[in-house]
Amino acid sequence: MTEVLSKQQTIELRKKHIGPSCKVFFAKDPIKIVRAKGQYMYDENNERYLDCINNVAHVGHSHPDVVKAAVKQMELLNTNSRFLHDNLVQYAQRLTATFPEQLAVCYFVNSGSEANDLALRLARQFTGHHDIITLDHAYHGHVTSLIDISPYKFHQLGEGGQKEFVHVAPPPDIYRGKYRENHPDPGAAYAEEVQTLIQEAHKKGHQIAAFIAESMQSCGGQVIPPAGYFQKVAQYVHNAGGVFIADEVQVGFGRVGEKFWAFQLQGEDFVPDIVTMGKPIGNGHPMSCVVTTREIAEAFGASGMEYFNTFGGNPVSCAVGLAVLDVIEKEDLRENAIRVGNYLMDLLKEQKEKHPLIGDIRGVGLFVGVDLVKNRERRTPATAEAQHVVHQLKEQNILLSADGPHKNVLKFKPPLCFSVEDSKFVVDKIDEILTALEKATGARVGNGNKEVVENGVCKRKAPRHSNGVPEQECVNGTGSYFAGTACGQESACHTDNHVVSCKRIRT
Ligand code: PMP
């Protein structure tokens, strides 16, 4: 049985019993999903949706090998890790084999947030320092310690949101950031910003415990760090006695294709001190892990405080984790990520020739961003247009999201079984939507100065956005755009004819 309640009953019960800050996608007209397979999800009427955003269902929704592994172990035993069990050590061995040699010690936990919280503890215990350097617009998790180091969240608190032990570095964004693609060495320039933060912290008597960053920023707008950035940052942070934490919660496990971990794209001469992972690790089963060096693990142990986690590393989770690794290999999903990702990027690049709304296409493997702009020269974020595309795609049973500080970056991070046919299908639909949008607004390609939205532009400040987000604009003078500032909060574009739900979709 897939559906017990009517959709309306589900909505009503949810309103009654679920905390109001737990939002659904497309709040005005939410989708009820009752089953899923591969890269497709099905609603209560058996309508099929193409899932372009689910980086949790990494090897495909409900993959039979993963399901079988879980059931088989559940039938036999599930318990905590205080007993010896082969699954735990076998999984730790398999997982660490995907890393450079020095990253050899695992702590199993249950969510990305737990992993990052533990990473902070490891860093602080090892270094004896407290302060954290984080990237602007970063999101690292929902627990108190991580809200503190997630500008994506604490910016919403306005003045006073940033704690004094937190130092915010500019994201190494060569499209929209301070140093761009025409800079001779943007990696070094962005790393220099981190060095300056370290020096400023020292002047105030603060000491750096860690620099934390996603290996490629996801919520931050699909930012791919320039070559050499991580190496230089690691050097500065190590000189300051801190450690480098790479958050691979969204981008790990072969999503980038060429490498198993996205940090490895920076080159073999870069190895983080701590790596955190989550989402794809269990293909939907809640599990996570922190991997670190023996030296850091020993220092953590030396505190004398035992680390115990009731569910972390239980035999079922480890069986699931092993099955996910098997499927990635057996189905050559990294190769698929390269092949399909390249094809998707090529199709999108063709669209860029055609549509002035597309400012930038960036990505690696099946982690791809399409940066929509009103003006190519000024790179003005086309926020309302991105939300419009997301909404229109949903009407055509395609699930895509828009993210980044301006919520104007269309974000692809599908299950790794995504196909060339899926890519063609979604890009054709984007083409249709952009064509209609540009027709309505009179935009032309090849005129860098021409605003995509010329008439009836209304401007208003994005509420409570303290991070330099420019005025937002909306399509249609009679409408208004309300910037949703919370990760996972809904925002809406109201126009004459309809209210477009502008939910920031993130899984
Ligand atoms: N780090 C990153 C980069 C994330 O995107 C997320 C979740 N979106 C987390 C950490 C937190 O993971 P979880 O929701 O599993 O706690």
From TrEMBL:
Gene Ontology CC, one term: mitochondrion
Subunit structure: Homotetramer.
Superkingdom of this protein's organism: Eukaryota
Reactions mediated catalytically: phosphoethanolamine + H2O = acetaldehyde + NH4(+) + phosphate
Keyword Lyase: yes
The protein's enzyme class: lyase
Signal peptide residues on this chain, from the entry's feature table: none
Family assignment from sequence similarity: Belongs to the class-III pyridoxal-phosphate-dependent aminotransferase family.
Record has Lyase as a keyword: yes
Subcellular location: Mitochondrion
InterPro entries: Aminotrans_3, Aminotrans_3_PPA_site, PyrdxlP-dep_Trfase, PyrdxlP-dep_Trfase_major, PyrdxlP-dep_Trfase_small
Annotated keywords: Lyase, Mitochondrion, Pyridoxal phosphate
Record function comment: Catalyzes the pyridoxal-phosphate-dependent breakdown of phosphoethanolamine, converting it to ammonia, inorganic phosphate and acetaldehyde.
Native source organism of the sequence: Latimeria chalumnae (Coelacanth)
Protein name stated in the entry: Ethanolamine-phosphate phospho-lyase
